[in-house]
Amino acid sequence: MKKLQGRSEGRRREILMAALACFCEHGISGATIEMIKERSGASVGSLYHHFGNKEQIAVALYTEGMRDHYARLREVLAETQSAEEGVKSIVATFINWIADNPEWARFVFYSRSQVAQIDKDEAIKQDNREHWGMLREWFSPLVSEGTVKRLPSECYSSIIVGPAQDYARRWLSGRANRDIREYIDVFSDAAWLALKP
Predict the structure, then answer these.
(1) pLDDT, average across residues 32-41
(2) What is the DSSP string of 68-117?
C-alpha cells in the first residue's frame, strides 16, 4: 500500500512540475491539459484523477508552493533562540525558498490573483489563516515581553519580508543581476533594525 501511495505521490509531483513549466511558458490560460500531459508523461485520466482539471492543478501548484515555504519556516522558527534570530530566520527562509525554487516563486508571485479567483474551496485563504496564526503565536510572547517592537499586526509581514519581496520580484523578472542570496544579511539586518525595541 505504501509503495502505491509513494508512486501516486510521485506521479502527482511530476504532473505539478510539468504544469509549472507549462504555466511559466504559456500562462495559466494559455497552457492546456494536452501540454501538461505531454510534458509529464501522464495520461489524461491520471491528470483528472489527481486534480480534476487544469485550474485545480494551478490551485494545487500555488498552495503546495506556499505550504513548502511555510513548512520550512515552521522548522526554522522552532529552532530559534531569540527574537533577533527568529526575525532574521524568517527573512533568510523566505529568500532561500525563492532562490531554491525560482520558477515556483515566479508562479506564486505573478499568478496569485488569477489562482485566488479559481480557488472556490478557499484553500489559499485557509492556508494563509493557519500560517499567520502560527506567526502570531510565535510573535505574541516576544511583543508582550518587549523583545520585539509592538506594531499593528498587519504591518509585521510588510516590514519583515517586504523589502526582500520587492528585490525578489526584480530578481525573478531579470531586472536585478546579483543573486538574491547575496543580500540575505542586508535584508535580515534591516528587518531586525525595524523591529528591535
Answers:
(1) 92
(2) HHHHHHHHHHHH--SHHHHHHHHHHHHHHHHHH-HHHHHHHHHHHHHHHH
